[in-house]
Amino acid sequence: xxxxxxxxxxxxxxxxxxxxxxxxxxxxxxxxxxxxxxxxxxxxxxxxxxxxxxxxxxxxxxxxxxxxxxxxxxxxxxxxxxxxxxxxxxxxxxxxxxxxxxxxxxxxxxxxxxxxxxxxxxxxxxxxxxxxxxxxxxxxxxxxxxxxxxxxxxxxxxxxxxxxxxxxxxxxxxxxxxxxxxxxxxxxxxxxxxxxxxxxxxxxxxxxxxxxxxxxxxxxxxxxxxxxxxxxxxxxxxxxxxxxxxxxxxxxxxxxxxxxxxxxxxxxxxxxxxxxxxxxxxxxxxxxxxxxxxxxxxxxxxxxxxxxxxxxxxxxxxxxxxxxxxxxxxxxxxxxxxxxxxxxxxxxxxxxxxxxxxxxxxxxxxxxxxxxxxxxxxxxxxxxxxxxxxxxxxxxxxxxxxxxxxxxxxxxxxxxxxxxxxxxxxxxxxxxxxxxxxxxxxxxxxxxxxxxxxxxxxxxxxx
Length: 463
What we know:
Elements: H1 4-8, H2 13-24, H3 33-47, H4 52-60, H5 65-76, H6 87-104, E1 110-116, H7 122-135, E2 143-150, H8 153-161, E3 163-164, H9 174-180, E4 181-184, E5 187-190, H10 192-195, E6 198-202, E7 220-225, H11 234-247, E8 248-256, E9 270-274, E10 277-281, H12 327-343, H13 347-360, H14 365-377, H15 381-394, H16 399-411, H17 415-429, H18 446-460
Parallel strand pairs: 1-2, 1-7, 2-6, 7-8
Antiparallel strand pairs: 3-5, 4-5, 8-10, 9-10
């Protein structure tokens, strides 16, 4: 294995470092050449490559590059986490945030939480345990969704498996571990009743845009992003914080870690200081009314009887009926209304807006696709699958329903069905140029979606 000194002296090392920071946002390594060189040296040894130039070629390879980047990211990221880490923040979540959110959402009976940078999963599972144990009877019939995301595929696979060593419970009371986990050999497996509301997916905070209804990261009540952005540059964090802000509903909460950057970056939030924790709430805006769902304007019918002639001193006024708007314009305005409602967490109204579009044109694949996304947020999983399959039936070349059906089936533990749907996405993408931005895809390009699909296929464990 080459020495770290040999790697840092490689003329292509700085180019490799720049690529790593650009791809992951980890400015943490900007002044830690020796640490990064040690990781790169290990990867050079494992791959049998002679230097950074060859390693850059491997990462750029369209077939082999993704797997190697996954392996590199697995070494770069820090998975040190455990259940109920930083008790003060969980106390604030239990005593301040959740009571306020549950009271506000009493009519919708839904709760959406995002754990960004979840590593191996103790954080989202800790939230699920708290909800069940402290608020269980109150939310027994609610639709609760906790989404854990990370860029480390190995971490996500372990998170979905839900098995942990003793060390992960060093801040967990014994009765919680006993009641919420089952011992399997020398590990502990989380019980299904604490697992069924938690899902995991790949998401790169730097490269994947959010808020995104299409990635299930919009209209959120709570975002938890602890000990993640400390590895990013201040400029990167300044770009991320407004995205978190826009991903929350009005009144939604952002929970950051202890050592996060200057609080000036969070000036658009209401700051709530508690013992051992600083919380941020989005309360700075009045919720705007979404654009109305448009209706097709038809010409005024010609009257059967002729109207009486006008008075002699008045000139007759010729009034032409308003021409109907093109259907594409009506559909586009309707989709904009649905997305605006979803961003505000007004899911029932978004469903009604979808139904209006479908009633106007039952063959509109886009309307069925958005109806599927909204159905999932409302807890109507059968409806979600039905509308996704209808969208595909109506337009088999519409890429995004295939993609979301794959993710949906994976969340329902149908790995074979998920693999088929995601491979269909790759087949459809072959017909499009890499730089093409997909309609309804939040500006995601063909190349970016292909990379994301590959990540999910690796995570599912199918090829």
